């Protein structure tokens, strides 16, 4: 009986229904749902998901989804995780105007043309088509020019496949990527790096030096901080001395009095 009930529940999860959404979120109205996580449920039909018109974050990873049509009405969606599904067509996402973060790693997106429908999404800044951690990818990622083309298509993108391409941290990502490329190119022989006369360092010699600011306000703040730190150390030493004296005094009072006979 229990096994039959479990099978019936699994069958219900193959299609997203109002009952499933309400039981998962505790919301009575679908329009009240803002965040939704339906991972690894064997879902292949998005059903009434499109009725959650105020949905902002949606996680559908690890299912069997192929058709994204119901998502076209989610105009407030900002984060969408569709990793590890069977999606090949992203066209319905064209109307998700404020989408910022899209994860479609581990699907069957075959060509760059499949991404053209996302170009109009001006707020899209984080796209993931492959994920090395879980070994998720798409056929389009096999294209040697895939990364360069995607960056050209989406000039506002900040993070591609988990790597920051602009802004703070992008230099470090690029440096690590260059190191990886060097290793993969087989420049090591018998554990030693083969030197080339045309090799140049990745960064300038002064790149790692900590430079003091000439800003007078910063210098004054730095001086005041050191003064406060010095005072704290003095107070700590005084407190330690007082505590030590108090403990010594209390230990003497607890000792039994001895009388000489």
TrEMBL record:
<keyword id="KW-0677">Repeat</keyword>
<dbReference type="GO" id="GO:0036158">
    <property type="term" value="P:outer dynein arm assembly"/>
</dbReference>
<dbReference type="GO" id="GO:0005737">
    <property type="term" value="C:cytoplasm"/>
</dbReference>
<dbReference type="Pfam" id="PF14580">
    <property type="entry name" value="LRR_9"/>
</dbReference>
<dbReference type="InterPro" id="IPR001611">
    <property type="entry name" value="Leu-rich_rpt"/>
</dbReference>
<protein>
    <submittedName>
        <fullName>Leucine rich repeat containing 61</fullName>
    </submittedName>
</protein>
<keyword id="KW-0433">Leucine-rich repeat</keyword>
<dbReference type="InterPro" id="IPR032675">
    <property type="entry name" value="LRR_dom_sf"/>
</dbReference>
């Amino acid at each position: 009986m229990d096994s039959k009930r479990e099978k019936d529940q699994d069958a219900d999860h193959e299609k997203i229904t109002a009952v499933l959404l309400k039981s998962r979120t505790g919301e009575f109205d679908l329009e009240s749902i803002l965040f939704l996580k339906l991972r690894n449920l064997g879902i292949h039909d998005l059903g009434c998901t499109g009725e959650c018109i105020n949905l902002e974050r949606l996680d559908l990873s690890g299912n069997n989804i192929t058709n994204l049509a119901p998502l076209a009405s989610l105009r407030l969606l900002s984060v969408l995780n569709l990793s590890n599904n069977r999606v090949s067509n992203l066209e319905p996402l064209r109307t998700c105007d404020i989408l910022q973060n899209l994860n479609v790693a581990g699907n069957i997106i075959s060509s760059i043309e499949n991404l053209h429908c996302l170009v109009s999404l001006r707020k899209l800044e984080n796209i993931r088509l492959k994920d090395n951690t879980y070994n998720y990818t798409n056929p389009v990622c096999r294209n040697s020019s895939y990364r360069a083309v995607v960056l050209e298509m989406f000039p506002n993108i900040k993070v591609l496949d988990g790597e920051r391409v602009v802004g703070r941290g992008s230099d470090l990502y690029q440096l690590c990527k260059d190191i990886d490329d060097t290793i993969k190119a087989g420049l090591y022989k018998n554990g030693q790096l083969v030197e080339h006369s045309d090799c140049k360092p990745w960064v300038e010699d002064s790149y790692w030096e900590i430079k003091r600011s000439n800003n007078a306000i910063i210098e004054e703040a730095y001086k005041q901080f050191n003064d406060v730190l010095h005072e704290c150390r003095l107070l700590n030493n005084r407190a330690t001395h007082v505590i030590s004296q108090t403990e010594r005094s209390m230990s003497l009072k607890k000792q039994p009095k001895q009388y000489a006979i």
